[in-house]
Design goal:
Layout lengths: L2 H24 L11 H12 L1 H19 L4 H22 L7 H21 L2 H5 L4 H34 L1 H9 L2 H7 L5
Helix pairs in contact: 1-3, 2-3, 2-4, 2-7, 3-4, 4-5, 5-7
Amino acid sequence: MSTDQKKHRGNWLKFSLALFLCLLARLVPLRAPNVEPILATMMPFGRAYGPLVGFSFAVLSILLYDMATGTLGVQTFFTAGAYGLLGLWAGHYFKKREKKKGDKMNYVTFAILGTLLFDGLTGFTVGPIFYHQSFWGSVVGQIPFTALHLVSNVAFALTLSPAIYHLLDKKRQTESENQFSPAINNLHPKTT
């Protein structure tokens, strides 16, 4: 197996494991609504592997949970679509900030903006359009929900996102793998 094949297999393993762990976290009984690591996990995946991976992670997280809990419905496609947009945006957002310091603050900023965008897109549309909720009822009900969502996403962005990115960072992994290569090359010089 080539090095590239091993690397791709490792990337898919990390992606699948992260999806599974997010699903498990969301399946914890009696947890507060919207205290979940999807956004905090999607950000470093979008940063490390690009917008399409961020999109895929976000959409699959929503679809897997709704299928596992038997709640697949029209709201699934709104929430998956909104999270998918955030995944695409994360890939672009962090690409522009790749060389800048202050990673934690970049994650926090994205978490705040992303949460407000997500809750605005889903909170003000799904209830009024599909469940005949009044718009003002939706706004009032969304305030405590979004406040809790913001607090949890910021906390996860400060702690979880940098740790996940550290595990995914290809450059850092390559540098640590290559730090011993000069010594190895001196022991086994190339002969022609």
